[in-house]
User: Fold CRISPR-associated helicase Cas3 from Rhodovulum strictum.
Amino acid sequence: MAAFCAMWPDASLHGLSDEGAVALSWWVPGFCTAADWIGSNTDLFRPPAACPDLPDYRAGAREAARAAVAAAGLASGTARDVPLFDFALRPMQAACAGVPLTDGPMLAVIEDETGAGKTEAALILAQRMLLAGKGRGLFFALPTMATADAMFHRAAATVGRLFDRQTTLTLAHGRAGLSVAFRDLLTGGPRGEEDATCSDWLAESRRRALLADIGVGTIDQALLSVLPVKFQALRHFGLSSKILIVDEVHELGEPYIGAELQALLRMHRAAGGSAILLTATLPMAQRARLLEVYGGASDSPAYPALTVAGAASVIEPEQWREPRRGAVAVRRLAEPEAAADLLADAAGKGAACVWVRNAVDDAIAAVGLLRERGIAARLLHARLALCDRKRIEAEVLARAGKAGTGRAGFVLVGTQVLESSLDLDFDVMLSDLAPMAALIQRAGRLWRHMDLRPPAMRPVPAPVLHVLSPDPAKVADAHWLHGTLERGAWVYPVADQWRTADVLFRAGRIEAPSGLRTLIEAVHGDAAGPVPEPLLAAEIAAEGQGAAARGHAAHNIVDLAAGYRAGGQANDDALYPTRLGEPQRVLVLARHEAGGLRPWADGAGPDAWALSEVSARLKRLDALPLPDQSAPAIAAVTRDWPDWKRAEYRLCPVAGDGTICAGLRYDTECGLIFMPSA
Assistant:
């Protein structure tokens, strides 16, 4: 010990507070894990032929460590003060370029409408925070794998300019290896000095992705740093040096995941970390809870708004003066048949149309209604095999994306996957009734790119959001929604649904951005009005479920104040989920061919089996007579699977007519279809 201390004579814990020591206790194990992994490289750390003196050994080890850290992709560069974008800044972006930075760890909340350039605004602010020494990298946390993939594609074009050396960029989620953009980065490498790169070492594990200069992934990857699971401390260590950018933060307002997010921010702040939160529809009460973590508060109803915890005031960016779509009118439709008639008529006039449904089964039924009217509607939802989903997504983007062509008469039916993951622009939109925040997100895909498609180019005179909903003035019983929506009536709390219908149909329009705060608070805020008496029991039940979820989160989240020695554990991820919800079962689809079973995505190379996977509710699938997994043809494929996969997944051959088993079939265009009982 004396010899060790003699090598670092200036090392001291003097002045370290008890609180600082506790925070450090969570950081050190992660640091040691990363160091151990890098130090395990026997090509760089060879045993010495002779035993050198300790000072000489330290000098040689330091040189080897520099080479090893650089080879791993962790040799952080210095932030550069260079323009990230070559376009004129929008108001929120300009606000982020000029807002005063606070001392120490900092939290900023960016609230603006969909399509206002919040991602670029966050990057501008994050660059300033890097230059101020508030971090050595970034981690973008997104709500879904699809949104993470989209963000990775956008980030790859910009983040290479942030540092004075080649920037490492990774994608962190369970299916990162299937991302074409990420694979291109790994195999093609950087093409210029300002292009990002990724080392093989970083790409080997999504746990290591949080150690890169720039990480993009699902929020789950960050939330695992506050749960008592394996590699929790490593994730915390990786995030601690990053500016954490959480996008679509309004989607993290449910009690369980909301509590996790607050714990994540507390732990991040304790380690000296800063964060930026992005949202279009954040209730003020939720914003207040998040600001409080960093010692801030705000009751300002301004919108758009840039709020910095601890700052004196909220910045209200001036309205952007580019051609905008204006107010979106809202009209109610009472039945699905009327909705199908409306879309068929609009498509006949050359409009690009979309119907956003709350449930997959209802989306499939809607396509049937449209096809009865001669409309070849496309269908996009989460119950498609990955290969089919990616193919349909590519077609949808090519037709209705920002630069889409062949839009005339194109009709898409989809579910919540359309709310945030894809940059789409429709002339006519129909949506099932959903909570206000979700409807505002959906409406963000209506008349979206006005600079490319001004009103004169649209086949309809004005943007209208048509909402399939019962009349909120006629609530006879607790099943108010069920006469109009089928499975989609169960997706959201009925109280939120009723308040949305009541407020929105009385308003008759969505005025963005100036009117969004009022609409959001009227449904999701603390001052939301009462619901009709027949819905009270359902609201009380929902509140009880929320309280239970918060209790569940409190039990699962690590005890930060206890320190790592008392609170750190290494449990299996499955025991401590990042989200609560219905358990899912993964089916791996296969085709019958001579010689045995082949992947549904046959021809997709080494990823064919992964691209053949599709998920649905475990309870619903396990009620069906799924194929016997001991059948010889199935066992020949699954015998090489790990034990956990054989226990949780089901290999399902698909017959020529799409049949998987009684009550279940698969269709390339419609996905997994549950058949009605005879």
Remarks:
- DSSP finds 23 helices and 21 strands in the chain.
- The mean pLDDT is 91.
- The radius of gyration is 26 Å.
